[in-house]
Automatic annotation (TrEMBL):
Location (main, coarse): membrane
Species in which this protein is naturally found: Cellvibrio fontiphilus
Family statement: Belongs to the major facilitator superfamily. Set transporter family.
Source superkingdom: Bacteria
Ranges where the Major facilitator superfamily (MFS) profile domain occurs: 5-396
Transmembrane segments: 12-35, 41-64, 76-94, 100-124, 171-189, 219-242, 254-273, 285-304, 310-331, 370-389
Name of the protein this chain belongs to: Sugar efflux transporter
InterPro entries: MFS, MFS_dom, MFS_trans_sf
SUPFAM superfamilies in alphabetical order: MFS general substrate transporter
Location of the protein in the cell: Cell membrane
Length: 400
Protein backbone atom coordinates (compact mmCIF):
# COMPACT_ATOMS: atom_id res chain seq x y z
CA UNK A 1 0.00 0.00 0.00
CA UNK A 2 1.11 3.56 -0.62
CA UNK A 3 0.21 4.77 2.87
CA UNK A 4 3.27 4.93 5.16
CA UNK A 5 1.07 3.37 7.85
CA UNK A 6 1.05 0.11 5.89
CA UNK A 7 4.37 0.04 4.08
CA UNK A 8 6.59 -3.03 4.62
CA UNK A 9 8.62 -1.27 7.33
CA UNK A 10 5.48 -0.33 9.28
CA UNK A 11 4.10 -3.85 8.93
CA UNK A 12 7.42 -5.21 10.20
CA UNK A 13 7.21 -2.93 13.24
CA UNK A 14 3.68 -4.13 13.97
CA UNK A 15 4.72 -7.80 13.70
CA UNK A 16 7.76 -7.38 15.98
CA UNK A 17 5.69 -5.50 18.54
CA UNK A 18 3.17 -8.34 18.53
CA UNK A 19 5.84 -11.02 19.04
CA UNK A 20 7.56 -9.05 21.82
CA UNK A 21 4.13 -8.60 23.41
CA UNK A 22 3.58 -12.37 23.29
CA UNK A 23 6.91 -12.94 25.05
CA UNK A 24 5.97 -10.54 27.84
CA UNK A 25 2.49 -12.05 28.12
CA UNK A 26 3.94 -15.55 28.39
CA UNK A 27 6.55 -14.74 31.04
CA UNK A 28 5.31 -11.92 33.27
CA UNK A 29 1.81 -13.12 34.34
CA UNK A 30 3.15 -16.56 35.35
CA UNK A 31 6.44 -15.46 36.90
CA UNK A 32 5.13 -14.90 40.43
CA UNK A 33 3.46 -18.32 40.28
CA UNK A 34 6.74 -19.79 39.04
CA UNK A 35 8.65 -18.32 41.98
CA UNK A 36 6.04 -19.15 44.62
CA UNK A 37 4.98 -22.64 43.51
CA UNK A 38 7.70 -24.08 41.30
CA UNK A 39 10.67 -22.78 43.29
CA UNK A 40 8.75 -22.47 46.56
CA UNK A 41 9.87 -19.15 48.02
CA UNK A 42 8.06 -16.85 50.45
CA UNK A 43 6.09 -13.80 49.19
CA UNK A 44 8.79 -11.37 50.33
CA UNK A 45 11.33 -13.01 48.01
CA UNK A 46 8.81 -12.92 45.16
CA UNK A 47 8.36 -9.19 45.69
CA UNK A 48 12.12 -8.70 45.84
CA UNK A 49 12.49 -10.03 42.30
CA UNK A 50 9.72 -7.86 40.88
CA UNK A 51 11.05 -4.78 42.65
CA UNK A 52 14.53 -5.52 41.31
CA UNK A 53 13.20 -5.92 37.77
CA UNK A 54 11.39 -2.58 38.01
CA UNK A 55 14.43 -0.72 39.37
CA UNK A 56 16.82 -2.28 36.87
CA UNK A 57 14.44 -1.51 33.99
CA UNK A 58 14.29 2.15 35.01
CA UNK A 59 18.09 2.42 35.06
CA UNK A 60 18.55 0.52 31.80
CA UNK A 61 15.86 2.46 29.93
CA UNK A 62 17.11 5.85 31.12
CA UNK A 63 20.77 5.26 30.29
CA UNK A 64 20.33 3.26 27.08
CA UNK A 65 17.52 5.53 25.84
CA UNK A 66 19.73 8.64 25.96
CA UNK A 67 22.77 6.80 24.61
CA UNK A 68 20.87 5.20 21.72
CA UNK A 69 19.80 8.60 20.36
CA UNK A 70 23.45 9.15 19.36
CA UNK A 71 23.63 5.90 17.39
CA UNK A 72 23.14 5.72 13.65
CA UNK A 73 21.38 2.33 13.80
CA UNK A 74 19.25 0.88 16.62
CA UNK A 75 18.85 -2.60 15.15
CA UNK A 76 22.01 -4.13 16.69
CA UNK A 77 20.70 -3.08 20.10
CA UNK A 78 17.38 -4.83 19.47
CA UNK A 79 19.18 -8.02 18.40
CA UNK A 80 21.60 -7.94 21.35
CA UNK A 81 18.86 -7.48 23.93
CA UNK A 82 16.74 -10.25 22.38
CA UNK A 83 19.72 -12.62 22.58
CA UNK A 84 20.02 -11.77 26.29
CA UNK A 85 16.31 -12.51 26.62
CA UNK A 86 16.87 -15.90 24.98
CA UNK A 87 19.52 -16.81 27.56
CA UNK A 88 17.40 -15.49 30.44
CA UNK A 89 14.38 -17.60 29.45
CA UNK A 90 16.57 -20.69 28.98
CA UNK A 91 17.84 -20.24 32.55
CA UNK A 92 14.24 -19.87 33.79
CA UNK A 93 13.36 -23.09 31.97
CA UNK A 94 16.26 -25.13 33.36
CA UNK A 95 17.08 -23.72 36.81
CA UNK A 96 15.15 -24.00 40.06
CA UNK A 97 17.75 -22.17 42.13
CA UNK A 98 16.11 -19.02 43.47
CA UNK A 99 19.20 -16.82 43.53
CA UNK A 100 20.25 -17.76 40.00
CA UNK A 101 16.74 -17.09 38.74
CA UNK A 102 16.51 -13.82 40.70
CA UNK A 103 19.85 -12.48 39.44
CA UNK A 104 18.98 -13.54 35.88
CA UNK A 105 15.60 -11.83 36.07
CA UNK A 106 16.99 -8.59 37.49
CA UNK A 107 20.14 -8.28 35.40
CA UNK A 108 19.35 -10.09 32.13
CA UNK A 109 15.59 -10.32 31.67
CA UNK A 110 15.02 -6.68 32.61
CA UNK A 111 17.74 -5.70 30.13
CA UNK A 112 16.15 -7.86 27.44
CA UNK A 113 12.92 -5.89 27.85
CA UNK A 114 14.78 -2.80 26.63
CA UNK A 115 14.33 -4.40 23.18
CA UNK A 116 10.69 -3.29 23.47
CA UNK A 117 11.74 0.33 24.10
CA UNK A 118 14.25 0.23 21.23
CA UNK A 119 11.69 -1.14 18.76
CA UNK A 120 9.42 1.67 19.92
CA UNK A 121 12.25 4.20 19.44
CA UNK A 122 12.88 2.82 15.94
CA UNK A 123 9.18 3.20 15.19
CA UNK A 124 9.25 6.82 16.38
CA UNK A 125 12.25 7.47 14.12
CA UNK A 126 10.35 5.93 11.22
CA UNK A 127 7.26 7.98 12.04
CA UNK A 128 9.18 11.27 12.19
CA UNK A 129 10.88 10.51 8.86
CA UNK A 130 8.07 8.95 6.85
CA UNK A 131 4.64 9.74 8.31
CA UNK A 132 2.81 13.09 8.23
CA UNK A 133 2.73 14.66 11.68
CA UNK A 134 -1.06 14.48 11.96
CA UNK A 135 -0.99 10.69 11.29
CA UNK A 136 1.76 9.80 13.78
CA UNK A 137 -0.66 9.27 16.71
CA UNK A 138 -2.66 6.80 14.58
CA UNK A 139 0.55 4.95 13.72
CA UNK A 140 1.49 4.83 17.42
CA UNK A 141 -1.99 3.56 18.27
CA UNK A 142 -1.82 0.77 15.67
CA UNK A 143 1.61 -0.16 17.00
CA UNK A 144 0.42 -0.27 20.61
CA UNK A 145 -2.66 -2.26 19.59
CA UNK A 146 -0.34 -5.16 18.77
CA UNK A 147 0.47 -5.42 22.49
CA UNK A 148 -3.25 -5.60 23.26
CA UNK A 149 -3.69 -8.35 20.66
CA UNK A 150 -0.78 -10.21 22.23
CA UNK A 151 -2.31 -9.97 25.70
CA UNK A 152 -5.64 -11.39 24.51
CA UNK A 153 -4.00 -14.78 23.93
CA UNK A 154 -0.65 -14.56 25.76
CA UNK A 155 -1.66 -14.89 29.44
CA UNK A 156 -4.12 -17.78 28.84
CA UNK A 157 -1.47 -19.53 26.75
CA UNK A 158 1.17 -18.99 29.44
CA UNK A 159 -1.05 -20.38 32.20
CA UNK A 160 -2.11 -23.27 29.96
CA UNK A 161 1.49 -24.24 29.23
CA UNK A 162 2.57 -23.84 32.85
CA UNK A 163 -0.45 -25.63 34.34
CA UNK A 164 -1.00 -28.52 31.93
CA UNK A 165 2.56 -28.99 30.67
CA UNK A 166 5.39 -27.27 32.55
CA UNK A 167 7.10 -23.97 33.23
CA UNK A 168 10.08 -25.45 31.38
CA UNK A 169 8.10 -25.68 28.14
CA UNK A 170 6.53 -22.24 28.64
CA UNK A 171 9.88 -20.50 29.07
CA UNK A 172 11.48 -22.45 26.23
CA UNK A 173 8.71 -21.14 23.96
CA UNK A 174 9.47 -17.60 25.16
CA UNK A 175 13.20 -18.10 24.46
CA UNK A 176 12.46 -19.23 20.90
CA UNK A 177 10.27 -16.17 20.32
CA UNK A 178 13.11 -13.93 21.47
CA UNK A 179 15.33 -15.52 18.81
CA UNK A 180 12.60 -14.98 16.21
CA UNK A 181 12.54 -11.25 16.99
CA UNK A 182 16.34 -11.08 16.81
CA UNK A 183 16.44 -12.83 13.44
CA UNK A 184 13.58 -10.81 11.95
CA UNK A 185 14.85 -7.41 13.10
CA UNK A 186 17.38 -6.93 10.31
CA UNK A 187 15.05 -8.58 7.79
CA UNK A 188 11.96 -6.48 8.52
CA UNK A 189 13.52 -3.23 9.73
CA UNK A 190 15.66 -1.47 7.13
CA UNK A 191 18.32 0.97 8.18
CA UNK A 192 16.81 4.42 8.51
CA UNK A 193 18.52 7.57 7.28
CA UNK A 194 17.12 9.87 9.91
CA UNK A 195 17.30 13.58 10.48
CA UNK A 196 16.49 15.37 13.68
CA UNK A 197 13.58 17.74 14.04
CA UNK A 198 15.98 20.64 13.43
CA UNK A 199 17.15 19.14 10.14
CA UNK A 200 20.49 17.96 11.52
CA UNK A 201 21.62 14.55 10.34
CA UNK A 202 22.12 12.28 13.33
CA UNK A 203 24.90 10.47 11.49
CA UNK A 204 26.82 13.74 11.40
CA UNK A 205 26.86 13.71 15.20
CA UNK A 206 25.27 17.15 15.61
CA UNK A 207 23.76 17.85 19.01
CA UNK A 208 20.13 18.75 19.55
CA UNK A 209 19.42 21.98 21.45
CA UNK A 210 18.62 21.48 25.15
CA UNK A 211 15.02 21.29 26.28
CA UNK A 212 13.58 24.50 27.65
CA UNK A 213 12.63 24.77 31.34
CA UNK A 214 8.93 24.91 30.39
CA UNK A 215 9.22 21.67 28.42
CA UNK A 216 11.14 19.97 31.24
CA UNK A 217 8.45 21.03 33.70
CA UNK A 218 5.74 19.59 31.45
CA UNK A 219 7.70 16.37 31.07
CA UNK A 220 7.98 15.98 34.85
CA UNK A 221 4.22 16.37 35.23
CA UNK A 222 3.68 13.91 32.37
CA UNK A 223 5.92 11.33 34.04
CA UNK A 224 4.11 11.83 37.35
CA UNK A 225 0.69 11.42 35.75
CA UNK A 226 1.63 8.45 33.55
CA UNK A 227 3.32 6.73 36.49
CA UNK A 228 0.23 7.15 38.64
CA UNK A 229 -2.11 5.88 35.91
CA UNK A 230 0.01 2.84 35.09
CA UNK A 231 0.48 2.29 38.82
CA UNK A 232 -3.24 2.21 39.61
CA UNK A 233 -3.72 -0.17 36.70
CA UNK A 234 -1.09 -2.52 38.14
CA UNK A 235 -2.63 -2.23 41.62
CA UNK A 236 -5.99 -3.16 40.09
CA UNK A 237 -4.52 -6.24 38.41
CA UNK A 238 -2.85 -7.37 41.63
CA UNK A 239 -5.81 -6.71 43.93
CA UNK A 240 -8.89 -7.67 41.92
CA UNK A 241 -8.37 -11.48 41.90
CA UNK A 242 -8.04 -11.55 45.70
CA UNK A 243 -10.93 -9.09 46.09
CA UNK A 244 -13.10 -11.34 43.93
CA UNK A 245 -12.34 -14.41 46.01
CA UNK A 246 -12.18 -12.99 49.54
CA UNK A 247 -14.73 -10.18 49.47
CA UNK A 248 -17.20 -11.06 46.69
CA UNK A 249 -16.93 -14.87 46.95
CA UNK A 250 -16.32 -15.11 43.20
CA UNK A 251 -13.77 -17.53 41.79
CA UNK A 252 -10.48 -15.77 40.97
CA UNK A 253 -10.34 -17.51 37.58
CA UNK A 254 -12.90 -14.97 36.36
CA UNK A 255 -10.06 -12.43 36.43
CA UNK A 256 -8.76 -14.06 33.25
CA UNK A 257 -12.08 -13.54 31.51
CA UNK A 258 -12.20 -9.93 32.69
CA UNK A 259 -8.67 -9.32 31.36
CA UNK A 260 -9.56 -10.90 28.03
CA UNK A 261 -12.71 -8.79 27.74
CA UNK A 262 -10.72 -5.61 28.38
CA UNK A 263 -8.01 -6.57 25.88
CA UNK A 264 -10.58 -7.16 23.14
CA UNK A 265 -12.45 -3.92 23.85
CA UNK A 266 -9.41 -1.66 24.21
CA UNK A 267 -8.12 -2.25 20.66
CA UNK A 268 -10.83 -0.18 18.93
CA UNK A 269 -10.37 2.58 21.49
CA UNK A 270 -6.62 2.64 20.78
CA UNK A 271 -7.28 2.96 17.06
CA UNK A 272 -9.99 5.57 17.53
CA UNK A 273 -7.66 7.57 19.77
CA UNK A 274 -4.98 7.51 17.07
CA UNK A 275 -7.49 8.51 14.41
CA UNK A 276 -9.02 11.40 16.34
CA UNK A 277 -5.66 12.66 17.58
CA UNK A 278 -5.47 14.67 14.37
CA UNK A 279 -8.68 16.50 15.36
CA UNK A 280 -8.36 16.86 19.13
CA UNK A 281 -5.56 17.82 21.46
CA UNK A 282 -3.61 14.80 22.62
CA UNK A 283 -3.74 15.99 26.21
CA UNK A 284 -7.54 16.14 26.09
CA UNK A 285 -7.64 12.50 24.98
CA UNK A 286 -5.31 11.53 27.83
CA UNK A 287 -7.47 13.45 30.29
CA UNK A 288 -10.44 11.40 29.04
CA UNK A 289 -8.42 8.31 29.97
CA UNK A 290 -8.12 9.69 33.49
CA UNK A 291 -11.87 10.28 33.72
CA UNK A 292 -12.53 6.71 32.51
CA UNK A 293 -10.13 5.41 35.15
CA UNK A 294 -12.00 7.39 37.78
CA UNK A 295 -15.30 5.79 36.73
CA UNK A 296 -13.68 2.35 36.69
CA UNK A 297 -12.28 2.43 40.21
CA UNK A 298 -15.34 4.06 41.78
CA UNK A 299 -17.41 1.36 40.07
CA UNK A 300 -15.14 -1.49 41.21
CA UNK A 301 -15.22 -0.17 44.78
CA UNK A 302 -19.05 -0.19 44.74
CA UNK A 303 -19.57 -3.36 42.64
CA UNK A 304 -21.11 -6.37 44.32
CA UNK A 305 -21.89 -8.68 41.38
CA UNK A 306 -19.77 -10.22 38.66
CA UNK A 307 -21.85 -8.64 35.89
CA UNK A 308 -21.11 -5.22 37.40
CA UNK A 309 -17.40 -5.87 36.83
CA UNK A 310 -17.95 -6.99 33.25
CA UNK A 311 -19.85 -3.78 32.49
CA UNK A 312 -17.05 -1.75 34.07
CA UNK A 313 -14.56 -3.23 31.61
CA UNK A 314 -15.88 -0.70 29.09
CA UNK A 315 -14.37 2.08 31.22
CA UNK A 316 -11.23 -0.02 31.66
CA UNK A 317 -10.94 -0.38 27.89
CA UNK A 318 -11.32 3.37 27.37
CA UNK A 319 -8.76 4.02 30.11
CA UNK A 320 -6.08 1.67 28.78
CA UNK A 321 -6.95 2.19 25.11
CA UNK A 322 -6.43 5.95 25.28
CA UNK A 323 -3.47 5.76 27.68
CA UNK A 324 -1.58 3.19 25.61
CA UNK A 325 -2.80 4.49 22.27
CA UNK A 326 -1.59 8.09 22.43
CA UNK A 327 0.42 8.31 25.66
CA UNK A 328 3.81 8.02 23.99
CA UNK A 329 2.70 10.59 21.39
CA UNK A 330 2.33 13.21 24.15
CA UNK A 331 5.95 12.77 25.26
CA UNK A 332 7.18 12.41 21.67
CA UNK A 333 5.60 15.77 20.82
CA UNK A 334 7.44 17.41 23.72
CA UNK A 335 10.77 15.81 22.70
CA UNK A 336 11.06 15.97 18.88
CA UNK A 337 14.22 14.38 17.50
CA UNK A 338 14.78 12.37 20.69
CA UNK A 339 12.98 9.12 19.93
CA UNK A 340 15.11 6.98 22.23
CA UNK A 341 14.78 9.37 25.15
CA UNK A 342 11.03 9.78 24.59
CA UNK A 343 10.35 6.03 24.43
CA UNK A 344 12.60 5.41 27.45
CA UNK A 345 10.86 8.13 29.48
CA UNK A 346 7.43 6.77 28.62
CA UNK A 347 8.47 3.17 29.31
CA UNK A 348 10.06 4.19 32.61
CA UNK A 349 6.76 5.70 33.72
CA UNK A 350 5.25 2.20 33.56
CA UNK A 351 8.13 0.78 35.61
CA UNK A 352 7.85 3.56 38.19
CA UNK A 353 4.12 2.93 38.41
CA UNK A 354 4.62 -0.80 38.84
CA UNK A 355 7.22 -0.30 41.56
CA UNK A 356 5.09 2.23 43.43
CA UNK A 357 1.89 0.20 43.11
CA UNK A 358 3.54 -2.97 44.42
CA UNK A 359 4.40 -1.08 47.63
CA UNK A 360 0.96 0.54 47.67
CA UNK A 361 -0.91 -2.76 47.49
CA UNK A 362 1.28 -4.32 50.16
CA UNK A 363 0.74 -1.49 52.65
CA UNK A 364 -2.92 -0.70 52.03
CA UNK A 365 -4.05 -4.32 51.76
CA UNK A 366 -2.09 -5.32 54.86
CA UNK A 367 -3.72 -2.68 57.05
CA UNK A 368 -7.12 -2.08 55.45
CA UNK A 369 -7.80 -4.96 53.02
CA UNK A 370 -7.72 -5.26 49.25
CA UNK A 371 -11.10 -3.56 48.86
CA UNK A 372 -9.64 -0.24 50.00
CA UNK A 373 -6.93 -0.35 47.31
CA UNK A 374 -9.56 0.77 44.80
CA UNK A 375 -10.47 3.82 46.88
CA UNK A 376 -6.79 4.78 47.08
CA UNK A 377 -6.71 4.34 43.29
CA UNK A 378 -9.50 6.91 43.00
CA UNK A 379 -7.39 9.46 44.92
CA UNK A 380 -4.31 8.75 42.79
CA UNK A 381 -6.27 9.14 39.56
CA UNK A 382 -7.48 12.56 40.74
CA UNK A 383 -3.84 13.54 41.33
CA UNK A 384 -2.95 12.32 37.82
CA UNK A 385 -5.74 14.40 36.27
CA UNK A 386 -4.45 17.44 38.17
CA UNK A 387 -0.90 16.73 36.94
CA UNK A 388 -2.03 16.62 33.31
CA UNK A 389 -3.70 19.99 33.84
CA UNK A 390 -0.24 21.43 34.63
CA UNK A 391 1.23 20.30 31.30
CA UNK A 392 1.71 23.12 28.82
CA UNK A 393 1.03 21.80 25.32
CA UNK A 394 3.68 22.08 22.67
CA UNK A 395 2.57 22.98 19.15
CA UNK A 396 2.70 19.29 18.25
CA UNK A 397 0.01 18.51 20.84
CA UNK A 398 -2.60 20.36 18.80
CA UNK A 399 -4.17 19.10 15.58
CA UNK A 400 -2.70 20.37 12.33
Amino acid sequence: MSSPLFRPTALGIYLLFFIVGIVGALVLPTFSLFLAKEIGVRPLLVGLVFGGIALASIVYNHWIGHWSDRLADRRPLVVSFCVLGFFACVIFALSRNYWLVAVTAILLFSLSMVSFAQIMAYSLDYAEAEIPAERIPLFNAIMRAQIAFAWVAGPPAGFLLATYFSFTLSYFVASVLYLVVALLSFKLLPRLEKKSAQGCNRDAGLMLPPLTPAVKRSLWFCVLAFSLLWGVNNAYLISLPIHLKDNLQIEAQWMGWLMGTTAVLEVPFMLLAGHYASRFRLLNLIRCAGIAALCLFVGVYLATKLWHLFLLQLFNAIFIGLLAGVGVSVIQALMPGRAGSASALYTNSTHLGNLFSSLLVGLVADYFGYHQVFMVNVVLVLIAIWAFAQVKSADELTPV
